[in-house]
Give the backbone structure.
Amino acid sequence: MSDAKQTIEVLGVKAKAASRKMRMIETRAKDEALKIAAAFLRSDMADVLAANALDMKAADENNLEPALKDRLALNPERVESMAQGLEEVAALPDPVGAISDLVYRPSGIQVGHMRVPLGVIGIIYESRPNVTADAAALCLKSGNAAILRGGSEAIHSNRAIALILRRALCEAGVPGDTVQLIDQTDRTLVGALLAADDYVDVIIPRGGKSLVARVSADAKVPVIKHLDGICHVYIDKAADRAMAVAIALNAKTHRYGVCNAMETLLVHELAMDCLPEIIDQLLAKKVEVRGCVKTQAINSQVIAATDEDWATEYLAPVLSIRVVDDVDQAIAHIEQYSSAHTETIVTADYVVGQSFLREVDSASVMWNASTRFADGFEYGLGAEIGISTDRLHVRGPVGLEGLTTQKWIVLGHGEVRG
C-alpha cells in the first residue's frame, strides 16, 4: 500500500466512525460547537494571522499570481467574517431528522421520508483559507464528517483554522474526527482521496476549472460540482426596456470573476432598440463587447464574435452579444452553448416567460431577474458549499439540505403483509 493511500485510509476510518456518531448528535451540540469555534477564531486570531503570514511569505517567494494572493490573504476583518459565518450556520434550521410526506397506507402502516446526512464528504479546494471554516461548518451542521484538502499555498492557515475547529468540537462533545484536514502538501494524496470509495461518500471540488475537471475525471465516488458558468440573459421583444438594460448591466458588471455573471446576451431583433444604451454603458465600464453582425452595426467598437466566444466563460470584462429571431432561437442557442448554470429571460409576456422557465434546462432559470441572484444566500439557504449543474442528486446552490439525502421510514402497529 502506498504512503498516500495509507494516509487517506487512516483518515477515512476515523471519518466513517465519526459520521456514524454524527447521526445521533443533537442540533444543540452542533450549534454549540460552531459558536465555540467562532469564539476561538476571535480569541486566537493572532495565531491564525501568524500562520497566514507564513503562507503569504511563501506566496511572494513563489511569485503567486496577485488574484490568488488576494484570495489567500487574511486580515482581522476576514477572520471576523469567518467567525460570523460559523455563527450564521449555527442559526440555520437543522435539516437532519426531519420527517416529511408521512401518509397512511391501506394496510395501516405509515410511510414517509426522513432527511439524513450523506456520510463522509471530501472537499478539495484552492487558495482560500476561509473555505476550511465554511465547508467544515456546513458539513457539521448537516451531520456529515468532512475530510478537507486545501491548496498547498494555504497549508499553514488551514492547519491553524482546522486546529481551532477540532478544539471546538471536542469542547462541545462532538467527535473531533468530524473535521479532519489533510495537512500534507503531497499531491498524490488528492488522487488517493478521490479513489477512497470505501470511506468517502461524495467529493466536492471548490476551485478553478482545471481542478474540477481533474476531480470529475478521476473520482471513484460521486462528485457535486460545476465546470463552467456560461450564463445567458435573453431580452424578449416584450421586455420592458429600462428593466432589460438594468438586468443586463447588473448581470455582467456587478462582478466579473464569478460563475453567475452573464457571459452572453441574447436580444430579440424587435428589442434591438435597447442595445445602443447597453453597449454604450458596457464600453464606458471598459467591458470589451463582441457581437454578431447586427450587433457590430450598432457600434464600431464592437468586435466580431466567433463560435468560440459563445462557448467561453470569460470571468472578465468581456461580453458576447447575439441578436436572435425569436425566443425559440434564443433557447436553441442556450441549449447548444450553455453550461447549464443560470439563464434569465426579460419579458412582460406571461406565455413566453412560462415557456422559457419550462424549456430551458439549467440549474437556475430566471424571469425578470439578474443571473447574479444564483447564490445560496440569495436563495435563502443561509450559506452554500458550491453550485451544482448535475441532475443528481442536487442542482444549483448547495446548502445544508443539499448535503443530506432521504431514506424511507415505515411506522407500523404490528401490521403483517397478507
